[in-house]
């Protein structure tokens, strides 16, 4: 891999009815330390005038703007100069993995980037965030995905994740490595990496060799569990996960999906649905012998929907548990 000083990077941002967040994220990327990076925004069929709003922002900023359709990412001649802002209209809501994969394909097909930085559109990057992540990744060629210190944008003293988190396969449960109030210093890279099962999806720096060997994110999940799936596939091929303590990204959790870990009872139906669905799909793929345990957890989750007087969510959980044909067909 290229050194941190010479590395070429592309940033992929997925937008879905959230142009205000996306523009704020892009503004932060314009203040990054180091050289220019390809900026790729993939729009997942927004209906809020996002495409025009983002296009107008880029033109006002004087950035080189390339507007593409999803089919254009396979055309090596679609963009002849760069870097700049590439705005790709996916034409439909392809989900988190599917939408981001379009941008990754563009970068792999049409540029010579060494790294792809996948960044949530509701994130704001510290000026040194990308540089620090590249430095950590470049220091160890076995690292395939590197995470950042994720802090809440509205409460920056509160840490959402030190890079990522741990998984408990027997329950298809994940838990981010979180900090505490008061601006606690990030732990060392080594202490986090020794326990890291996945990199938090709000900021993932992925190497080109990892993408070449492991492939893109699994699109069947649509939302949630893509990061854990990716990490497990990478580990099977000998790749490690990295953490860059000095890479700081501020995040508005759940701006698109309506899910905030601080307020689980307020979780949107969309987030709830794909969370349950993802647990079943992930377990069936990697740990089928744990399915009885996971179903036991989901049965308890169904009871919680009863206690909260959420009959439509109770029906949703039961439908996903006992209608595998529907689950696999989606």
What distinguishing features does this structure have?
globular, 2 domains, Spore Coat Polysaccharide Biosynthesis Protein SpsA, Chain A, 10-stranded mixed β-sheet, 11 helices, 3-stranded antiparallel β-sheet, 13 strands, 330 residues, alpha/beta
Question: How would you describe what is shown here?
Answer:
The protein has 330 residues and is an alpha/beta fold. The chain has two domains: 9-251, Spore Coat Polysaccharide Biosynthesis Protein SpsA, Chain A (Alpha-Beta Complex); 264-329. Helix content is 38%, strand content 22%. It is built from eleven helices and 13 strands. The chain has helices spanning 19-29, 50-61, 95-110, 129-138, 189-193, 208-214, 226-236, 269-286, 291-307, 311-322, 324-329; strands at 9-15, 38-43, 65-69, 85-89, 115-120, 123-125, 143-152, 159-162, 164-168, 173-176, 198-199, 203-207, 240-251. Strands 1, 2, 3, 4, 5, 6, 7, 8, 12 and 13 form a ten-stranded mixed β-sheet that branches. Strands 10-9-11 form a three-stranded antiparallel β-sheet. Strand 9 and strand 10 (173-176) form a beta hairpin. 46% of the residues are buried. The model has no long low-confidence stretch (mean pLDDT 89).
């Amino acid at each position: 891999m290229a050194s941190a000083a010479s590395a070429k990077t592309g940033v992929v941002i997925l937008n879905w009815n959230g142009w205000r967040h996306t523009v704020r994220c892009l503004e932060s990327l314009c203040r990054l330390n180091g050289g220019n990076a390809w900026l790729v925004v993939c729009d997942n069929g927004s209906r809020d005038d996002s495409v025009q709003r983002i296009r107008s922002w880029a033109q006002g900023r004087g950035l080189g703007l390339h507007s593409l359709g999803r089919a254009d990412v396979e055309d090596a001649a679609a963009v002849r100069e760069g870097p700049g802002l590439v705005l790709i209209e996916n034409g439909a809501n392809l989900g988190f993995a599917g939408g981001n994969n379009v941008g990754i394909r563009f970068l792999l097909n049409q540029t010579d980037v060494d790294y792809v930085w996948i960044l949530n559109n509701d994130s704001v990057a510290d000026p040194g965030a990308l540089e620090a992540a590249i430095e950590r990744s470049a220091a160890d060629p076995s690292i395939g995905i590197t995470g950042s210190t994720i802090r809440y944008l509205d409460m920056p003293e509160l840490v959402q994740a030190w890079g990522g988190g741990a998984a408990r396969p027997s329950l298809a449960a994940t838990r981010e490595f979180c900090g505490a109030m008061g601006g606690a210093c990030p732990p060392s890279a080594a202490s986090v990496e020794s326990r890291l099962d996945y990199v938090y999806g709000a900021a993932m720096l992925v190497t080109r060799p990892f993408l070449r060997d492991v492939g893109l994110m699994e699109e069947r999940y649509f939302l949630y569990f893509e990061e854990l799936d990716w990490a497990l596939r990478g580990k099977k091929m000998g790749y490690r996960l990295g953490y860059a303590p000095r890479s700081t990204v501020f995040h508005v959790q759940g701006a698109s999906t309506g899910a905030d870990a601080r307020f689980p009872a307020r979780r949107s139906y969309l987030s709830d649905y794909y969370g349950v669905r993802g647990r079943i799909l992930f377990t069936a793929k990697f740990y089928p012998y744990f399915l009885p345990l996971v179903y036991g957890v989901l049965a308890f989750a169904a009871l919680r929907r009863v206690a909260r007087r959420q009959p439509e969510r109770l029906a949703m959980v039961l439908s996903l548990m006992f209608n595998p044909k529907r689950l696999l067909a989606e």
